[in-house]
Fold:
Amino acid sequence: MKRNLISLTSNCRLVPYLVCLLLIGALCLHTTEFASAEVLDPDLVLYFDYEDFKGDTVLEKSGRGYDGAINGKVTQSNDGKFGKAAHFVTGSFLDLDGPNIDPDDIPTEGMSIVAWLNVEAIADMAIFNARAGDSTWLVHPEARGSGKYRWLNRSPGGATIFDIRAGDNKANEWQHYAGTFSRADGLAVLYINGKNVMEEKARVGTPIAGDWDQGARVGYNIDNNRPFAGLMDDLNVWKRGLTEEEVNTIMNEGVDAFLAVEARGKLATTWGKLKASK
Structure:
């Protein structure tokens, strides 16, 4: 009887301890889930939907916190493709503080730049630009004065990986731009309005230059050339090459809807693996 009483007493003392462990475990799990939920996608580096301006800053929505500091006159417009857009006056840009971008977030093995554009004229206009510490211009997604679009990546030291110039640049109407590159596939593709207008095999096998130490901007080259003038919406930058299907989903439904579809697909795959392992 005494032994049973001692056992009961011990168990009573153990219960609060176990409850505390369970609460701590639940809190840790919740914290982990919350932290992981902050970044929308491991490959999504930058995402400007232009829905939120805060003073002299445009809020960046990937969850990485790379907000754009407004230089010049970048204002919010109600005439976006999806809700609101950014209106860039010639010579204005968003400064992304390139030297302080996490090196793990800089695309090297692949890159995709996607955006809706409504330019005011047919001229050389930079959508996004970054320059490495060795002065390599590592990326040129542009609407061009030649009447074409451009998509380019370079390796460290300035070796051109690909340089695509194709499509019909049109002013005063929305056009969808998507440049993609996968080093593993050795292929770059330029999509305009969801259509493959040109692709090019990689000229060299080296990665994209891996730092933005001389700066990164939206709407203006680092050397203050090729200013963007007009409306821009839903700019998203990835560190992998998107597929044609992914480009079209983003074009038609937006980044948020694409990520929701992607999440459902991952959930279904995970559930299938769990069922198969039973």
User: Anything to note?
Assistant: The two ends are 44 Å apart (CA to CA). Residues 2-38 form the longest helix (37 residues). The CA atoms of residues 56 and 272 lie 47 Å apart. Confidence is low (pLDDT under 50) at residues 1-37, 267-276.
